[in-house]
Design brief:
2 domains, ATP_synth_OSCP/delta_N_sf, ATPase_OSCP/dsu, ATP synthase subunit 5, mitochondrial, ion transport, single chain
């Protein structure tokens, strides 16, 4: 966790000039992360991601592949993601729009220290780029989408099954088997990672998300459609 004392200590050790030095030391990577991932045709991401967070995650993946640092980068991003979940206050700090260059440099330094990634240039340049572009608040989204890229590269597709109550393993296995047989939802040679989420608001039934596709079989969805039909007919 990033304590205020640790942040202030890191700030004292990393003034604004140090921040500018970090960014200036890796101009090529900085420009690469800021640009659209399609700009580098030599390395192709295993799945297309959208949004600003997806752009940064794809650019980081591309840089990690090119520098043969994909494994350590993936481990560090996973550690950063876990840190953000463990320390909600950190996410609030990262989203602060008034952070000075010294503040951002201190945060980057502390993140590297906590995740023991000081000697990983790919991650260091990436974090410096987020700081320079005032995008540190995207770190949580980027870590999640980078994880998605890693799973896709390993031939793994996430299937999220949302239900009103927790599902037993037998039911989840049957759903996994049924979806795996679908060539439309799961490509050949792919494997599913099944996650069950509980949301009482759907009332009953299931909402199945596979990749970027959603199959809504929830009771709440059926009620909403029925209400719309009744409203349109009046």
């Amino acid at each position: 966790m990033l304590s205020r004392q640790a942040m202030l200590a890191a700030r004292a050790a990393a003034p604004s000039t140090a921040f500018r030095t970090v960014v200036a030391a890796a101009p090529a990577l900085t420009r690469g992360y800021a640009a659209a991932p399609a700009a580098d045709a030599a390395v192709k991401a295993p799945v297309a991601l959208f949004g600003v967070g997806g752009t940064y995650a794809t650019a980081l993946y591309t840089a990690a592949v090119k520098t043969s640092t994909l494994d350590p980068t993936a481990k560090t991003l996973a550690a950063l993601g876990a840190l953000l979940v463990k320390d909600p206050k950190l996410a609030t700090i990262l989203e602060t729009p008034t952070l000075s260059s010294a503040d951002k440099a201190a945060i980057v330094a502390e993140l590297q220290k906590v995740t023991k990634s000081e000697n990983q240039p790919t991650v260091s340049h990436f974090l410096a780029t987020l700081a320079e572009n005032n995008r540190l608040g995207l770190l949580s989204d980027v870590t999640a989408k980078f994880s998605e890229l890693i799973r896709a590269a390993q031939g793994e597709i996430e299937m999220v099954v949302t239900s009103a109550q927790p599902l037993d393993n037998r039911t989840l296995s049957r759903l996994e088997s049924a979806v795996t047989k679908s060539a439309t939802l799961v490509g050949q040679g792919k494997k599913l990672k099944v996650t069950n989420k509980v949301n009482a608001d759907i009332l009953g039934g299931l909402v199945v998300e596979v990749g970027d596709r959603t199959i809504d079989l929830s009771v709440s969805s059926k009620v909403a459609k029925l209400n719309k039909m009744l409203t349109d007919s009046l």
